[in-house]
Fold each of these.
Amino acid sequence: MKGLSGHLSAEQKAELIPKVTDAIVSVEGERLRPHSRAQQSLSEEETDMSRSRWDQNVWRIPFLFAGDLLKQPVWIPIWVSALMVVNMVSLAFWSQPLAKVIFVTFLMSAMLMMGLYAKFGFERILGLGHVFWIPLLVYLLVHLRHAEGEFQTYLIVLSLCIGASLLFDAVDVWKFLSSNRVPR
């Protein structure tokens, strides 16, 4: 704003500053918005709740998640992308009832994952978002022998990916719950 002094009147500056603040906040999050003294004296629990990603526009959560995902070691976004792709391949087999179950389970897991992310951020607890994959994996293994051709191959690949992911998830959730960061 200092670079604009001399070019804008005090009234124009007063109008522009809230707009710039709102633009920055919409990009960087509510934590950057100046708070009143009353808000500064919130209890620790209320402060933690105010930092929740739910305070932001709910439609931005997947984009915030993607940004945090890209900050992880390179193999993690590649693995997550592979899991997304292998689940979405179920659309290619839409005529199969099991493909519909796979896709709906994928969507439910994604929604749960975004809820967990909104509450906890990019933490190991996100592995809990795949809890719906446990019954799905059992269901896949039971129905695998009845599938044929490309669909059977797809189910094998999907089962291996889900199984590997659930192993990672179990370790991550255990580490999170064993840490001191668990909210009380």
Amino acid sequence: KRHAPARRDLPLAGGGAIGLTELVSSRSGYVEQVPPVDLAEHVDGIWIQRGDLPAALPWPAVDLLVLPNGEYWFGGPETHARRGELPPGGALVGVRLRPGALTELCGIAADEVPVAGAPLHDLLDDATARRVAEAPAIGGSRVRATAGLRVVRLLAERPVGAADVQVRRVLRAMRAAPGAPVAHHAAEVGLSERQLRRRFQVAVGMGPKSYARVLRLHRALAVARDLTLDGRRPSWADIAQRAGYYDQPHLLSEFRRAVGVTPGMLLAGEDVRFLQAGARTAVTRSRNGQ
């Protein structure tokens, strides 16, 4: 029995974990960790956010959220940056699933998960929801991160869906070349554009054009970050070309639309996280030079 997705908003308001390797720490309250090896096929990373949500890039992925009260939610993939305050009572913990993992593990289409979020028990079938209820998540952020990973392990023991191999191939190709036309990616895997859009929507939670748009944001800031770390001033005209934009005005327009600020403002801000082609890299820069 499938419950209808809840349309309640994620409740935004005013440890001893084993196998968690810290990747980046921020004075703005953001910490990201690489997933354990045994879950790397399904999990892209684990993150902990304290304080208000800063200006940051959107993430085109479904998150398993572990709230301070121990409640589990799914949060839908983002095409625009999320803003607001975190739930009271402690940090917000998220286990970021890889595209397609939700459908494979739970039999749920990613586009069934509202961006605003929904409790797991509103989306999972009754038997799976009971299994998840056996993984309590009361405690500090590290305890809850471990609990979130335990939930993914429970789901991986008895997956109810199957991986979409063709969409996986397209995802890899899009990360390598986010500016390539969708028609090209569809043809490479033997699908029509319409077929790819439908299957992409199920696996990823958004269309391939929207996904590529978010990837380009991450690619552009990753290039700018590398230049900055090398002591060079970013040229946004050159970066626009390298990231798959038509030109610099196109790049700036996309950042304002998705994030509300320019990429230069993000680089100088408190919390910027990058998704790069091939391997993901998280980088945080602060006004204090961290």
Amino acid sequence: AAQTIAGLDLMITIDSMPAHLAGALGVPTWILLHSDCDWRWMQKRTDSPWYPTMRLFRQKNADDWLPVIGRVKQELERLASSRFQTTSVAAQTENRSPAVDSRCAARSPRFGKLGSRKPIMCARLIV
């Protein structure tokens, strides 16, 4: 599990063992938290003192996940847009379309230069 998680550019999850493992490994992690979450997430924080690469997305009202998912979607679209622009520049430099680039970790901060390290898990995100 640790090797697979370490290969991720981002993990989006709930409060669970994989979330803590990702945080301990320094993998960027977004956690969706219930309004009455565990004490370790403290109150009214969007970050974690335990895991510097973690962002917390909290419910404001119990069982109301729609606003939480909306915030995650908005942030994910922003992130995907910035990464697509970087990937597009890299693909143009090498005369390839980003859509057919099988190395989707291209120019990712976790993987350095294009093709310098093979990702363990690779998936294209379409938002």
